[in-house]
Amino acid sequence: MVYGENIYLRDPVREDIDILYDICADKEVLKYNGLYTGIMTKEYIRSQFHHFTKPNKKELVIVTKDSDMIGYVYYKENSYTRDVYSIGITIGKGYWGNGYGKDSIRTLCNYLFNKRKAHKIELEVVKENIRAINCYKKCGFKEEGIRRSKYYIGGKYLDTIVMGLLKEEFIQYIGE
């Protein structure tokens, strides 16, 4: 387990599938989670949390100090550069706006920089997902570029923003 201020991150267990399905199947959550079909199934959730099929990707569920499972984060080391990790997060709509996203991202970054010896952490976010972009900026991420028409949802293509955070920036950020 990895502990933040108001959350902790732990490995998922089989019993988490139904809760994660309920969290991820919400239309507003589904809008930006990268599932191009817009249809969530329990089989899809199971496939995302089956570690034997994705050895380079690690998912952790987000649990509040009150023991409510509210979503998940993932990380994977990039195949093209050593010590560079890509991350992502999904939090249930009922928990938005309470600082859980920021706490989860900071906790994950702290783990990756200090335990996995990451040099850089990067992510992609849909340009229209202002809530997530603001969260990432509060965690110290900087915009690095735009990937045009990368994400398809609701019958149209949307741009994504590439964001990154270097270890020295994170150290400076948490020291403030």
Give keywords.
176 residues, alpha+beta, Aminopeptidase, eight-stranded mixed beta sheet, 6 helices, globular, Acyl_CoA_acyltransferase, diamine N-acetyltransferase activity, EC 2.3.1.57
Which sequence of SSEs, written as H and E, runs from N to C? EEHHHEEEHEHEEH
Share in β-strands: 25-35%
* Second-tier CATH architecture: 3-Layer(aba) Sandwich
Specify the CATH class. Answer: Alpha Beta
Number of helices: 6
Q: Give the fraction of residues assigned to helices.
A: 25-40%
Radius of gyration: 15 Å
CATH topology grouping: Aminopeptidase
Integer average pLDDT: 88
Distance between the termini: 26 Å
Largest sheet: 8 strands, mixed
Domain count: the total is 1
How are the strands of the largest sheet arranged? Answer: 1-2-3-4-5-6-8-7
State the CATH superfamily name. Gcn5-related N-acetyltransferase (GNAT)
Number of strands: 8
Low-confidence stretches: none
Secondary-structure-derived class: alpha+beta
Question: How are the SSEs ordered, and which strands pair?
Answer:
Elements: E1 2-3, E2 7-10, H1 17-24, H2 27-30, H3 42-48, E3 57-64, E4 69-77, E5 84-91, H4 100-114, E6 120-126, H5 130-138, E7 142-153, E8 156-166, H6 167-175
Parallel strand pairs: 5-6
Antiparallel strand pairs: 1-2, 2-3, 3-4, 4-5, 6-8, 7-8
Protein name: Spermidine N(1)-acetyltransferase
Domain N-acetyltransferase: 7-168
Enzyme class: transferase
Word description of this protein:
With 176 residues, the protein is α+β, with helices and mostly antiparallel strands. It has helices at 17-24, 27-30, 42-48, 100-114, 130-138, 167-175, and strands at residues 2-3, 7-10, 57-64, 69-77, 84-91, 120-126, 142-153, 156-166. The chain has a single domain (2-175), classed as Aminopeptidase. It comes from bioreactor metagenome. This is Spermidine N(1)-acetyltransferase. GO terms for molecular function: diamine N-acetyltransferase activity.
